[in-house]
Write a structure and sequence with these properties.
The protein is of the alpha+beta class. The chain is 34% helix and 26% strand. The chain has 2 domains: 125 residues, Nucleic acid-binding proteins (OB fold (Dihydrolipoamide Acetyltransferase, E2P), Beta Barrel); 284 residues, 2-Layer Sandwich (BirA Bifunctional Protein, domain 2), CATH 3.30.930. An 8-stranded mixed beta sheet has the order 6-10-11-18-17-16-15-14, sandwiched between helices. A 5-stranded mixed barrel has the order 1-2-3-5-4.
Length: 494
């Protein structure tokens, strides 16, 4: 029998002993009055507190037992002295292991060593763990185990719990800013869709038995349904959407991810950049209480008095890598693509070549907050034609720390222009681009009922959390990231 099996058996024996003593090892309720943090704050008030949590460690010294009790707000020491606690309850405490749950009531004091401690007067057993807590869950040596057993990672590594707690604070902050500061309404759109669209990506497919095994797609973006709501009369809307793209996995991409899109009637991409800038500054102050953002070990100022840099895509290529694409022939662009091992999907176009070179050569250099605007039309099928340059669109991307943080547009509102763009996407699809968007006749029909001028934003929640917590792996900021199945892993090994 292995050591862990021996430990499990020992814990089961303790459970049986507790049951023989009449203890309910999985009770229904405990009237927890204070969190651990509130107990610590009650130190100087002399009041009786009543809290509960998981026992992380225990130490017996004769007739005194010390426990480290933890909940989501922190950890506190509990001292249980025989005589202060009735005899039967103290016998129960002798069977408590790390991992078990315990309720305690008593006064908060400082021990002679200066540690804030609950001097327990009453205790109640609240749950028996049958497996031992690991002594460590090392991020460097056992990442996959951490992600597969995230609950243990959260228990053992305070940084993991901190990052995930900040994630949900950030989502709450996004809602508060858009609703309370900017007057947006939160909406919902379908995840299962008869036709995917809203960006260039490869979809996941499924079938629905209730509709005679009709083929459906998991949402790659909520955009086209949100725009239908704009046609329906709404003017300022957003959705925090779970999206699914059947693509690769790396440090900043997973097939299942969360993003927010919002749409503002009568606005353009200049309005949307201002809203995104305001949101990020708001969240940085809320989460980090600073105008200074850390990108790995580098400080980046988000001071509102200093405007964020703004370049067109062509200007950025010229400024950062001394490449003047307007003076280059198609053959020269193709040579640059070849030299950098770049191969845009489908047919060659100047727009795709310019975008590929920018994406490969420039983005990693954009550490300070930088707006890149005016993208080629053939990589922006849903963005409005630029008002001064017909080969470009009014599209932006925001880069901070070398990472794309947000994407936005002056939206196409002319159904004839949108139809032409969809037709071009169909051509790309026929030429082998499996990320091109399908022709969505239902969406075009909706547009034909009329749309106001419109600005739109897409912003990855996962990427935003990475930015605001200085955590540059997407798996670290998602509670349960997509992983290769253990069975598949075993099969590959064979």
């Amino acid at each position: 029998m292995s050591r862990i099996e021996q430990t499990i058996e020992a814990k089961k024996e303790k459970r049986q002993q507790l049951e023989a003593m009449g203890v309910n090892v999985s009770p229904y309720f405990y009237d927890k009055k204070q969190t651990v943090a509130e107990c610590i704050a009650a130190l100087d008030r002399g009041e009786i507190v009543k809290t509960a949590g998981r026992v992380m460690a225990g130490r017996a010294h004769g007739k005194v037992i010390f426990f480290d009790l933890s909940d989501e707000t922190g950890k506190i020491q509990v001292m249980c002295r025989e005589g202060n606690i009735e005899s039967e309850a103290f016998k129960v405490l002798l069977l408590v292991d790390p991992g078990d749950f315990l309720g305690v009531s008593g006064q908060v004091e400082k021990t002679r060593t200066g540690e804030v401690t609950i001097i327990a007067g009453e205790t109640e057993f609240l749950g028996k763990a049958l497996r031992p807590l690991p002594s460590s869950f090392n991020a460097a040596t056992d990442k996959e185990a951490r992600f597969r057993q995230r609950y243990l990672d959260m228990l053992i590594n305070p940084q993991t719990q901190s990052v995930l707690a900040k994630r949900w604070q950030i989502v709450k902050g996004v809602r508060r800013f858009l609703q309370d500061e900017l007057g947006y309404t939160e909406v919902e759109t379908p995840i299962l869709q008869p036709l995917y669209g809203g960006t260039n990506a490869r979809p996941f497919t499924t079938t629905m038995k209730a509709l005679d095994d009709a083929q459906l797609y998991l949402r790659i973006a909520p955009e086209l349904y949100l725009k239908r709501l704009i046609v329906g009369g709404m003017e300022k809307i957003f959705e925090i959407a779970r999206n699914f793209r059947n693509e690769g996995i790396d440090q900043s991409h997973l097939p299942e991810f969360t993003m927010i899109e919002w749409y503002h009637a009568y606005a353009d991409y200049n309005v949307m950049t201002a809203e995104v800038e305001g949101l990020i500054r708001y969240l940085q102050r809320m989460i980090n209480h600073s105008e200074e953002l850390m990108i790995e070990d580098q400080k980046v100022e988000l001071d509102g008095k200093k405007p964020w840099r703004r370049y067109t895509m062509k200007q950025a290529l010229h400024e950062f890598v001394d490449l003047d694409v307007d003076t280059m022939s198609d053959d020269e662009l193709k040579a640059w693509l070849k030299d950098n091992n770049l191969a845009p999907v489908g047919e060659f176009t100047r727009g795709k070549a310019i975008f590929s070179l920018f994406d490969h050569l420039v983005t990693k250099l954009l550490i300070e907050p930088t707006w890149i605007i005016d993208y080629p039309k053939d990589v922006s099928p849903l963005a409005k034609t630029h008002r001064q340059a017909s080969e470009l669109t009014e599209r932006y991307e925001l880069y901070i720390g070398g990472k794309e943080i947000s994407d936005g547009w002056s939206e196409i509102t002319d159904p004839l222009e949108q139809r032409s763009r969809f037709e071009n996407e169909q051509k790309r699809m026929r030429e082998g681009d499996d990320e091109a968007q399908p022709y969505d006749e239902d969406f075009l029909e909706a547009m034909e009922y009329g749309m106001p001028p419109l600005g739109g934003v897409g912003l990855g929640i996962d990427r935003l959390v990475m930015l605001l917590t200085n955590t540059w792996s997407i798996k670290e900021v998602i509670a349960f990231p997509t992983l290769k199945s253990i069975n598949a892993k075993d099969t590959d090994a064979e």
